[in-house]
Amino acid sequence: MTSAQVDHGQGGRRAAEVADAGPAGEGYQRALGSRQIQMIAIGGAIGTGLFLGAGKAISKAGPSLILAYAVAGLVIFFIMRALGELLMYRPVSGSFSEYAREFIGPFAGFVTGWTYWLFWVVTGITEVTAAAQYMTFWFSIPPWVSALIFTIILYGVNLISVKLFGELEFWFSMVKVTAIVGMILICAGILTLGFSDAGDTASVTHLWADGGFFPHGIKGTLMTLQIVMFAFLAVELVGVTAGESKDPKTVLPKAINTVPWRIAVFYVGALVMILSVVPWTAFSPGVSPFVEAFDKMGLGLGAGIVNFVVLTAALSSCNSGMYSTGRMLRDLALNGQGPKLFTRLTRSGTPLVGTTFSAALMLVGVWINYQWPGDAFTYVVSFATISGMWAWIMILVSQLRYRRLADRGVLPQSAFRAPGAPYTSVFALAFIAVVVVMMGIDKDTRISLYCAPLWAALLGVSYLVLRARNPENKAFAKS
Known about the structure:
The protein has helices spanning 15-20, 34-44, 48-51, 54-61, 65-89, 96-103, 106-135, 143-160, 162-193, 206-209, 217-222, 225-232, 248-257, 259-277, 289-297, 302-334, 352-371, 375-407, 423-441, 446-469. It is an all-alpha fold. The radius of gyration is 22 Å and the shape is globular.
């Protein structure tokens, strides 16, 4: 399938053309069912950012972190509803890369596809490396051996079939959901029945009694926004599954509409419970709040349980990386913005070369990380978060432009319109801008803003070279 370009100068392309521009011809199999899509959507919002990163955020913001997650969660819902509107207009596997190409221009699609691919490659490297380190909690296995085994297994799963990927992701997500629900129930039992070592001191007054709800002021809360938003990265992955969902026009809206309660339960609810049972002052940066909470409760198995959960979360993220990188590379190749060999599919409809290339890079990255662990690699990871937020920006801008064309009657209206748009989309863009500013203020994340222009320059040069070599390719047509 070639990219469907919108001629913005003449008011957009004909509605009939849009109706014909579905996923037909992509070559993928619609094998992901409702159960799997729902759990992929849930799992995408729960990662190591919650299980591990929340410890640092709690030390910076105290109980006000709950408010930060609630507001950021609302923004994420606005982003997902914007994506949902686009998905119901045209459900394609390329998702936001396709929409950026169509509504902003070919260069925007080129940048979005390659940037999102980079995001998942780097994320896959860090997550499989982390998973290997988690294995040392139980076994004396060299980390590189575990990393190699995990990568090969996940690579094989993604090549066999998309249905197997979805099934594995279903169970990965189930583990994460069970862990959080279990923690909430345990904390609720301690607050009401008073059992465990924390029973005598557990109280909801911890939310405001230890220095107030904003112990470090509003600035302390604002400085955690980047940590909070990082925790939500990958929630947009459900959009990449559009071209392989059995019934995308029914399943995807249901999955997207579950975002509010997912965030309310898994983030806001979990933090309210944990910070009510254990004072926020008891948590340390760099240590999982779940581990510390279990320790304060006197539940000795806590460290082992949380280690298993974060291992699952890391493997889930790597599994998602394998899935999305192959699709993004194939979408770029189909539009002439990447090597043609990335268009090859296996008999089961999975992108063979793109997935293989990405998996190989992940293994090289793991080796580099083991050989030269240090700040340089941390900076690359920080840059990856900027890459993830770029996808959100492209979703919002594309939705704004699509809505304007649809309201003018140039394009058909989506069956799943984003409520409150365009105001909600503008608010979400402004919120992301605030997060970027906070990243610039924080010395630990500032380096990622320096790397972004370098990556943009590299993509700009690559785009000009490809356009010069393929002047007749519509994917490089000036919008």
